[in-house]
Amino acid sequence: MTYKVYMSGTVNGHYFEVEGDGKGKPYEGEQTVRLTVTKGGPLPFAWDILSPQSQYGSIPFTKYPEDIPDYVKQSFPEGYTWERIMNFEDDAVCTVSNDSSIQGNCFIYHVKFSGVNFPPNGPVMQKKTQGWEPNTERLFARDGMLIGNNFMALKLEGGGHYLCEFKSTYK
User: Does the keyword Ligase apply (predicted)?
Assistant: First the structure.
């Protein structure tokens, strides 16, 4: 299957748009995507804060064991939405929403992103991050939705980590 990403938003007031084309095997847990900044580039902040929206946010490509229901794949052809709050250790916050649909053999993701309160001298605005540590999201069903909660860590130049709590709702 293929997928398209259309992301727009702001980080500390800087507007940007990103578009991407990806492909993957939804039942095998594989995916790749090529993303391009189409407006607002070059970005004055670390790309890493955007990457989970098309990686961890691309849950139709998650491989589930046979004994666990795959609510996301079951939501198609109607599709699903998700909302996420990312709370960083220095009080920076990102809010993200994604409206996911399918057209033929292609998932379509419309992502809205807002990041605020990133300190000008912090790792995001200074572009000192070096990718996320591997992570597993805990998902559970509640009131007809999936709730996700996980703690993530961005690796930093020179060592150390920049911590972030993700809270996601999939419906």
Answer: no
